[in-house]
Amino acid sequence: MIVRNGRAKCLAMAGKGGTGKTTLSGLLIKYLIKKALTPILAVDADANANLNEILGVEVETTLGEIRDRMKSDTPANMTKNEFMEMHINQAIIEEKGFDLIVMGQPEGPGCYCMANSILAQVIEKLMKNYKYLIVDNEAGMEHLSRLNLRDIEVLFIVSDASSRGVLTATRIASLTSALGVNVGEKVLIVNRAPQDIPDALNSQVEKAVSKTALVFGGYIRQSDEIFRYEVEQIPILKMDGSSQPVREAFSIFEKFFPLYNTAACP
């Protein structure tokens, strides 16, 4: 197993609810698998966890549940660190080309500071075993702090096809500075766009790019095929590579992996 710099490169997906960032996370995983940029650790950090459904895998235990159990179920002969690490490793869902862990939400009351600190330590250890870490995030990106992820190679910020959505994306991009996160590139993706892009939307995108640190990745058009896959609960990994949403998503991702497209990672 070859890992660049001994640690997985972090790619994160963010955006307000309903923009399709989880579907794009699945397409990003599909892209990396096709390019043989594996192994991948995917982390579903969205409060509305459904990345597993997009990928077609079952979840038995979330990290939120483990944090709850740590507070009351840690055996006397085991430290909390040992308890957390053991159960987190058991919670990893192993698939061909990628593994998945689901953050979930803790159910019990009280402070989870110690549990979050241990969680960050365990994730740091896990990152040494993967080439890429994919984080499907909620809009506020608080989980980036909980996981202690201070360096992100690419942050993909997903907007819907509206001027207001693009404006929201610029606000999300600014949150990284408040969290003290170093981001290589912040990439705006406008998802579920009409076939003919309105001039007003193009203008808003150009304004967002000119006035912020955002780079425009591209548009992904509204797709009946994506809708069918989601309604029929067909894993996005099975979508044909010639379909429009896959081609458009891959075209965007291709721009940010120029060093790895023709040769394996050194």
Can you walk through the features of this model?
The chain contains ten helices and eight strands. The protein is of the alpha/beta class. It has one domain (4-254): Rossmann fold (3-Layer(aba) Sandwich). An eight-stranded mixed β-sheet has the order 3-4-2-5-1-6-7-8, sandwiched between helices. Helix 4 (80-91) packs across helix 5 and helix 7 (163-179) packs parallel to helix 8.
In whole angstroms, the N-to-C terminal distance is 11 Å
Please identify the top-level CATH class: Alpha Beta
Would you tell me which CATH topology applies?
Rossmann fold
Query: What percent of residues adopt helix (DSSP H or I)?
Result: 40-55%
Query: Biggest sheet: strands side by side, in what order?
Result: 3-4-2-5-1-6-7-8
* Helix/strand order: EHEHHHEEHEHEHEHEHH
Strand content: 15-25%
Architecture per CATH nomenclature, i.e. the level-2 architecture: 3-Layer(aba) Sandwich
> How many domain regions?
1
Instruction: Identify the CATH homologous superfamily.
Output: P-loop containing nucleotide triphosphate hydrolases
> Which structural class do you get from the secondary structure elements?
alpha/beta
Principal-axis shape: globular
Number of helices: 10
Taking all Cα atoms into account, the compactness measure Rg is: 19 Å
Residue-averaged pLDDT: 87
Which regions have little confidence, pLDDT < 50, spanning 5+ residues?
259-266
Sum this structure up briefly.
The protein contains 10 helices and 8 strands. By secondary structure, it is α/β, with parallel strands linked by helices.
